[in-house]
Each structure stands twice: as C-alpha cells, then as structure tokens.
Write a structure and sequence with these properties.
Blueprint lengths: L9 H15 L7 E2 L2 H8 L3 H13 L3 E4 L3 E4 L9 H11 L7 E12 L2 H7 L6 E11 L3 E11 L19 H9 L5 E10 L2 H7 L6 E10 L5 E10 L14
Antiparallel strand pairs: 1-3, 2-3, 4-5, 5-6, 6-9, 7-8, 8-9
Helix pairs in contact: 1-3, 2-3
Length: about 250
Amino acid sequence: MPEIEVVLPKYLQIAGYLRDQIVRGDLPPGAEVPSERDLAAMWRVARPTATKALQALRQQGFVEARRGAGTFVRDVSPAAPRARERYERAAAMGTMYSDVERVEFPFVGIVEAPAYVAAQLGLGEGERVVKRQRVISNEASGPTELSTSWFPAVTTEVAPKLLVAERLRGGTVPHLVEVLGLRGAFARDQVSARLAGDEERLALGLPNPSAVLVYWLVVFDSEGGPVEFDEAVYPQERWAFRQDYPITV
C-alpha cells in the first residue's frame, strides 16, 4: 500500500532552507548565517533544534564556525540552483535571480524547432517556436548556466513579452500561468550529461572538449499538454542538484 511521505525533521528543514540560500547566492561566501538564537525565533523552534541545523550545514561543508564571531558561509565548490529552487525563490522574493547574478540574452526570436525541441513540445519537426536564450553569470565565478526556453510560436499571440529580450518578473512559467490562465500546471525534470556543443562552450567559456550537465524541464497544462521546454546547461565543475530525504527501514 502507498504510504504518506515522512516529513523531514525540523532541523533538516531549516538546514535545507539555508543551504538553498547559499546555493542561490543569497548568502554568498563570507556572509554571516543567522545565529542559533535568531533561527530559533524565526522558525519558532527550540534552541537545540537551531543548533542541530547549523551543525548539519557544517558537516555538509557549507558553513564554518568562527569562535567569538558567529557562523559564516564557506567558499565551497561553485553551485548552480535547479529550476525548482529558482521558482521557489521567485514565489518568495519576486525574482529568480540573486543580487550577485547577471542575466544576458544572446538570442530571443522565432526559429524552426530542432527535432528534440519539437518532440518535447509535441510539435512537428521544423514548426516555428520561440527561442529565449539566456546566459547567467555570477559576479565572482563568471558564467554558471546557459539556459534556453522554447515555446510554440502561437503562444506569442497571448504572451508577446516572450519575444522581448528582458527578464520577466518571476520567470517565464509564472508569466504563462498568468496570461494563459493555467490551473493545475505541473512540470517534469530530467538530467543527463554530454559533451558541450560549440555554442555552449563559447557562452560558458569552456575548453574543447568539455563535459556539461544538462537539465531539461517541461511544463504541462492541466490536460497534459506541453507549453514550455527549458534546457539548462551547466559547466562540469558545478553540481546543481541536491536533495535531502529521510530513509525508512
């Protein structure tokens, strides 16, 4: 029989929230993490619970304690947030990107759909699609992600802003939810690795050859029809996806 998913302990929920802030860049290397007392007050938990949350982050290598000063974010291996984390940030803060990130648009326009894009969007090969290409860079570490969003060209009849080379508040998915009136929309992720193409190496400043991590996200309406396909490409030295979950025996 199916079982109800076990909720993570409170201290891991707190640690996960702080870890996501670190990954997104909201808490950059060297930033001070809220104290045990502040975390206990913010999350309405006992002081020992906040202590365990900070201990978990130290064990995972994200923060370090400095005697008499507090707890600070370590300069860990560069990371890039996954799409779900960006959408959660947009819902909470109105933007998908942190203050240390810069977004540039190498290309925005209508093109013929490559075969793999047409397949993900349920279109015929060569049909017209919107291509929104973005390079996301971190002030400290340079390009972190080449992200391309694809939409059926007819979508621009109700969402013309997709053809404007500028950031949409909250991201393209919330914009489509608003203009298309989507209800019950859901998304599907898949991750793979491959060698970077010429365009990807140029955008991310990578040598030839270079392996990259590729993240596909397809957004569906409530009837299961695809409305958006995103392809995010990350340099190989960046891990992008991490999840904590309880193990039951």
